[in-house]
Write a structure and sequence with these properties.
Layout lengths: L2 E4 L11 E4 L15 H39 L1 H20 L4 H5 L1 H9 L3 H18 L2 H25 L4 H4 L17 H27 L16 H28 L5 H20 L1 H12 L2 H28 L6 H13 L16 H5 L5 H18 L9 H13 L2 H8 L1 H6 L1 H5 L4 H28 L20
Antiparallel strand pairs: 1-2
Length: about 475
């Protein structure tokens, strides 16, 4: 028996063909059982094995390069920072000029730009983006983005807390800072988080468009309403334009933070390395993360059980963070505190000399950002209540006018949070607050839980349903059983 690989047309791609029998024809047409295992599987196994080897090689090279970059950054970390201090001073002299006249002239712009990097302010700004995404664009992408982002904030805050890295204006009083940030700087939380949000949201929307295009010809039950007036090509270019503009603005903000003495360039370097590591891990576990979030919020059968599992997990990791916080030695350089007070005095802020030395900068200020885990708990409880009550996985859809109204209501609902953040320090400094044990960390935990529970749960259930702003599509109604649930 002999066989050859026959190609219908020699001009076509020779990687495609079929097996042709060269024997004289007889009554034996059952050729497939007579083929060996090598003949019958070589066209399938060989490309699959080749792709697996290529993927494994890319992952190994990726990890090896990141490991080398991390070693390089740690080795020359302090050497680079010493050079950067003089670079920042020279750059400020060139940019603002000598003396305080140019500094005072552009004070408000740079002050509020730096204030946006303050944790409470940046948290509320991100919440505006998250809730807009949740009630007006895509609820599933919003749930994934919030969950992954907040957990990253927690672990990066702990890493920054353990590193205990100073900021440039702490080290050198000649460096002018428009906003006196009291948190540690390595790795840069804002540097990592803003880049992660831009890239991850772009990937999520691109992945969604690919899934819709792939499933639409085969699954007639999936009907994605599109009232935007854009075709698929226009959407793709719109997403890419948004990505490019966001990265340009992001780069400009990084430059200004370096110019105003809030970040070192070496901090950016470590933040980019951590972004590459964490983003690679998320890409490999993205399907698992999505399934877990669906089971916690959308699938009714598992939602209640999974929510409490998440709550226990979040409480455990926050408890471990508290243990690490209280067991860490107080290590604050008095020169850094003096430069911090000089920054406040230069910016005409009230200098609180009654605070304990270890609560002025560094440890306590950085640890407070770990309270975001309570926002994740409020998110899961609220989103689960929304999907259980409305019983539609696409309640966030509907006409453009309906979506705009939901977005406006959700953003207006955050006004009390802004009032609380503005006057939070006054509430803490009130004499009765210390008597009842109220601290900034405890207030943040309660505030973030109630805020996310209200925005992602109470608002859709008790406001949107009453006003008729929840899009009730019966074709996408909630299925109560686990096995029949298909999204």
């Amino acid at each position: 028996m002999s066989f050859e690989l026959f190609h219908p047309n020699s001009n076509e791609n020779r990687s495609v063909g079929f097996i042709h029998d060269t024997r004289p024809k007889d009554n034996d047409y059952n050729l497939l059982p007579k083929l060996t295992f090598e003949h019958s599987t070589s066209f399938i196994i060989a490309p699959t094995l080749q792709a697996y080897k290529r993927s494994l090689l890319i992952k190994l090279l990726y990890c090896f390069v990141l490991f080398l970059l991390f070693i390089f950054e740690r080795t020359f970390h302090h050497t680079l920072q010493n050079q950067e201090l003089s670079l920042i001073f020279d750059l400020q002299t060139f940019w603002f000029g000598r003396g305080n006249s140019a500094f005072v002239k552009g004070f408000f712009f740079y002050y509020y730009l730096g204030r946006m990097g303050e944790f409470h302010i940046s948290f509320l700004l991100m919440t505006h983006a998250f809730v807009t995404l949740y009630v007006g664009v895509d609820a599933m992408i919003a749930l994934k983005t919030v969950t992954v982002s907040m957990i990253c904030v927690f672990f990066l805050s702990m890493l920054s807390f353990l590193n205990g890295e100073t900021r440039p204006y702490w080290e050198n009083s000649k460096i002018k800072a428009f906003y006196c940030d009291g948190t540690y700087s390595d790795p840069g939380l804002i540097t990592f988080l803003y880049l992660f949000l831009i890239v991850y949201c772009y990937r999520c929307f691109g992945q969604k468009e690919e899934e819709l295009l792939a499933t639409a010809p085969f699954d007639s039950s999936i009907e994605e309403e599109d009232n935007s007036g854009f075709n698929e090509r226009q959407k793709k270019w719109l997403n890419r334009t948004f990505l490019v503009i966001s990265l340009i603005i992001y780069g400009f903000v990084l430059f200004l933070r370096f110019l105003t003495g809030l970040e070192y360039l070496s901090n950016y370097f470590l933040s980019f390395i951590l972004f590459a590591i964490i983003y690679g891990l998320i890409l490999t576990t993205d399907n698992y993360i999505e399934d877990l979030i669906k089971q916690t919020t959308i699938l009714k059968l598992y939602a209640k059980q999974k929510i409490f599992n998440w709550l226990i997990f979040l409480l455990v990791i926050e408890g471990l963070a508290c243990v690490i916080y209280y067991q860490t030695d107080y290590n604050v350089d008095l020169l850094n505190i003096q430069n911090f007070f000089k920054c406040q005095s230069h910016n005409r802020h009230k200098v609180d000399t009654q605070r304990l030395y270890d609560e002025v900068i560094g440890k306590k200020e950085t640890f407070e950002s770990t309270s975001v885990v309570f926002a994740v708990a409020g998110l899961f409880f609220g989103a689960s209540q929304t999907f259980r009550t409305i019983s539609s996985i696409n309640w966030y859809k509907g006409p453009f006018k309906m979506r705009i109204l939901r977005v406006i209501i959700a953003n207006l609902a955050m006004i009390p949070s802004w009032v609380l953040v503005i006057f939070q320090q006054d509430v803490i400094n009130y004499s009765s607050s210390h008597f009842i044990g109220l601290s900034k960390f405890m207030l943040d935990c309660v505030h973030y839980f109630l805020l996310y529970y209200g925005l992602f749960g109470v608002l859709p259930v008790y406001i949107y349903l009453c006003l008729g702003l929840a899009f009730m599509d019966l074709k996408f109604s909630m299925v109560l059983t686990q096995g029949m649930m298909k999204i």
